[in-house]
Amino acid sequence: MSAGVRVRVPASSANLGAGFDALGLALALHDVIEVRPHTSSLTVLVSGEGADDVALDESHLVVRALRAAVEHLGYDPGGLELTCANAIPHARGLGSSAAAIVAGIAAGYGLAGVELTGTAREDALHLAAEFEGHADNVAASLLGGLVLAWGDERTGRFRAARVEPHEDLSPVAIVPAERSATHVTRGLLPEVVPHADAAFAVGRAALAVQAIAERPDLLLPATADTLHQDYREKAWPDTLRVVRELRARGVAAAVSGAGPTVLALTTGSALPRAVDLTGFTVIPVAVDRSGVVVTPLG
Ligand SMILES: Nc1ncnc2c1ncn2[C@@H]1O[C@H](COP(=O)(O)OP(=O)(O)OP(=O)(O)O)[C@@H](O)[C@H]1O
Ligand SMILES: N[C@@H](CCO)C(=O)O
């Protein structure tokens, strides 16, 4: 029987401008969970982010994802002790829910002795994306680097491709204290957008892949958006002010995921002092290139 597993999972920033629900970048800010066999059915201990407010029972997001994974694999892990050391801020647009889901699924695979490679990894991605509702953040947390995510209209399955980001890329997360729930700001989006806005977004999202992988000099035009940021402005007006002021000064800034964090994609230069960042915490954060890592406990 497995002595348990340790799982390290990265944060992520989705959209990256116009790549709504399609592009994601893994960030080197990690939650670490450990899962061990236990005599009682379930014990959950949480430290760090969310310690005061997440559920400590079967409804805990990591537990729900782990249960879904072992059920999918036909494995019964018995009683479990889960400890979570969380560093990813919750409800700020840094993919905390996706990281929790990927951590739970990876732990389930680890307990069942199934390596997250090949078709097992493809299955895990689909399972995680079904949980989250879209694949951009979960793909980044699973695979690391830059990810391009899509749903296959033939099979109904979520898929993702990984691209290696340029070595000079230096993301900066500009994180406000306020939270914003993704399901709330998704509710602010329109059913349809003008064709010209869709055409603009297609070009910029495609450009974003090239800029992040090969051409950091193109990051500013590559991170312009017409699909979601303005529609969500009333949820976080100060976030959009910061995005606009940074962009006006040549910094490739976009709303991170569903906000309210601002992601600046720099090549190491300092942020302009003229932009008022009062109330925000500035966190330079490297690209995570490895994705989720599962280690057996001895
Ligand atoms: N490590 C975790 N353990 C348990 N629950 C979590 C964890 N991380 C996130 N959650 C749950 O997910 C919620 C946040 O999810 P939400 O999708 O709104 O934001 P996010 O994932 O941080 O940001 P975004 O999706 O915009 O990148 C938290 O309020 C909490 O209920
Ligand atoms: N693409 C998602 C990312 C946040 O989960 C959104 O913007 O709603």
Automatic annotation (TrEMBL):
Pathway: Amino-acid biosynthesis; L-threonine biosynthesis; L-threonine from L-aspartate: step 4/5. Gene3D superfamilies: 3.30.230.10, GHMP kinase, C-terminal domain (3.30.70.890). Residues 61-145 form the GHMP kinase N-terminal domain. Its EC number is 2.7.1.39. Keywords: Amino-acid biosynthesis, ATP-binding, Cytoplasm, Kinase, Nucleotide-binding, Threonine biosynthesis, Transferase. One of its GO terms (molecular function) is kinase activity. The keyword Cytoplasm applies. It comes from the Bacteria. It catalyses: L-homoserine + ATP = O-phospho-L-homoserine + ADP + H(+). It is found in: Cytoplasm. InterPro entries: GHMP_kinase_C_sf (IPR036554), GHMP_kinase_N_dom (IPR006204), GHMP_knse_ATP-bd_CS (IPR006203), Homoserine_kinase (IPR000870), Ribosomal_Su5_D2-typ_SF (IPR020568), Ribsml_uS5_D2-typ_fold_subgr (IPR014721). ATP binds at P89, H90, A91, R92, G93, L94, G95, S96, S97, A98, A99. PROSITE patterns: GHMP_KINASES_ATP. It holds the Pfam family GHMP_kinases_N. PANTHER family: HOMOSERINE KINASE (PTHR20861:SF1), HOMOSERINE/4-DIPHOSPHOCYTIDYL-2-C-METHYL-D-ERYTHRITOL KINASE (PTHR20861). Belongs to the GHMP kinase family. Homoserine kinase subfamily. Catalyzes the ATP-dependent phosphorylation of L-homoserine to L-homoserine phosphate. This is Homoserine kinase. The lineage of its organism: Bacteria, Bacillati, Actinomycetota, Actinomycetes, Pseudonocardiales.
